């Protein structure tokens, strides 16, 4: 896959990911995007456990969309590449490419908007400076 994204993760399509037509069900593309976000958070905070991410990066998923390009099938290895393409005051936008690993056939593209959210007060808040700095460092690091 084109290395335009600093974070990539590999997913093997399971039988349970497929539908009656034999290809990956559209809803699972969003799950693959979620797995990509987990890989991204792990890269941002390698010193933290996954369960700690909710304390340092609490957000709501305000928007998510996908464009389906080609079917994927059970047993295929998919590469999910993703990155932050825009940071606002309280939100950030991520873009995704999902491709079959061997042929690099594009399976789907997508985007999501994440908004920083304080669950205790049920209110949005600005992206913390440390988080902005880590995202900027990751996105501008050498490939």
Protein described:
With about 140 residues, the chain is of the alpha+beta class. It has a single domain, classed as Hotdog Thioesterase (Thiol Ester Dehydrase, Chain A), CATH 3.10.129. About 25% of the residues lie in helices and about 35% in strands. The protein has 3 helices and 6 strands. It has helices spanning about 25-45, 55, 130-140, and strands at about 5-10, 60-70, 75-85, 90-100, 105-120, 125. Strands 1, 2, 3, 4, 5 and 6 form a 6-stranded antiparallel β-sheet that branches. Strand 4 and strand 5 form a beta hairpin. The longest helix is centred in the first third of the chain and has 19 residues, at about 25-45. The radius of gyration is 16 Å and the shape is globular. The protein starts with 6 loop residues before the first strand and ends with a helix. The model has no long low-confidence stretch (mean pLDDT about 95).
């Amino acid at each position: 896959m084109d290395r335009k994204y600093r974070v990539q993760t590999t997913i093997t399509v399971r039988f349970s990911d497929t539908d009656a037509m034999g290809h990956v069900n559209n809803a699972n593309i969003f799950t693959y995007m979620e797995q990509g976000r987990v890989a991204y958070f792990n890269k941002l905070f390698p010193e933290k456990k996954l369960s700690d991410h909710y304390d340092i990066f609490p957000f709501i998923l305000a928007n998510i969309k996908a464009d389906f390009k080609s079917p994927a099938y059970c047993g295929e290895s998919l590469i999910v590449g993703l990155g932050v393409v825009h940071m606002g005051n309280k939100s950030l936008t991520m873009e995704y490419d999902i491709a079959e690993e061997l042929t690099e056939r594009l399976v789907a593209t997508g985007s999501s908007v994440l908004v920083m959210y304080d669950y205790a007060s049920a209110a949005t808040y600005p992206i913390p400076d440390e988080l902005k700095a880590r995202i900027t460092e990751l996105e501008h690091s050498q490939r």
